[in-house]
From TrEMBL:
Residues spanning the membrane: 12-33
Superkingdom of origin organism: Bacteria
Active-site residues (renumbered): 117 (proton donor/acceptor), 211 (acyl-thioester intermediate)
Coiled-coil blocks: none
Naturally occurring in which organism (per UniProt): Corynebacterium casei UCMA 3821
Compositional bias per record (Polar residues), positions renumbered to this chain: 232-242
Protein name: Putative sortase
Alphabetized UniProt keyword annotations: Hydrolase, Membrane, Transmembrane, Transmembrane helix
Alphabetical list of Pfam families matching this protein: Sortase
Amino acid sequence: MKKSRISIAQVLGELFLTAGVVLLLFAFYEAFWTNVESGKLQDQAQQELDEQWKNPRQNLTPELGEAFARMYIPAFGPDFEFAIIEGTDENDLLRGPGHYEDTQMPGEVGNFGVAGHRVGKGAPFNDLGALETCDAIVVETATNWVTYRVLPIDGHPADCLSTEQQAKLAGEYSGVQGRHITVPGDVGVLAAVPSLADAPATEGIITLTTCHPQFSNAERMIVHAMEVENLPKSNSDGSGQRPSALEETA
């Protein structure tokens, strides 16, 4: 009776098939299941934030892992709303976009840095590559609405900025781009004036960071926007005038 032989090609084929199945399962886990888990944690963070703002405390400095603000990007649609978490470790980013704790707070002069996942884990920054010059990024705190506008991308003029701010883009802020790709270790993007380590800040900046390309940690996508409006929540219940930027669409 003739014995069948298993060829090297057959073994390799089986290995490649198994590897393909494993990769598909991993992609499903990253792109779907972690979104479900993060969605539950983000909902919990939103509820905690609502409760915190209803019953404000004297110490306004957030603790690590705590939600303290909300982010809206109208160009991504009316449903884009995320509670921002203090801290950027894996547990923090699983709950939502995370604030780099050594950077400024929203509305302050300097750089308010926020990290977020691009694939899976809620993927709050999945579409950062679609942002355009002057698109709004709105941050809501317990007391204020702070609106930032994306700085020039691909040479498009930022006519949404004041004349003074536009002049600064040709001066001390000339190295600050609306969007660029860099290496993971480029901490200069989080400097008070991004990319200028010792320069004194004269404007409020928000910096968003995420992985690039998708499904990879090889590089970082960076988005910078400049503060253009800071509205107080005038009423005692925290309501009041909302920024008109929230009504913009893509």
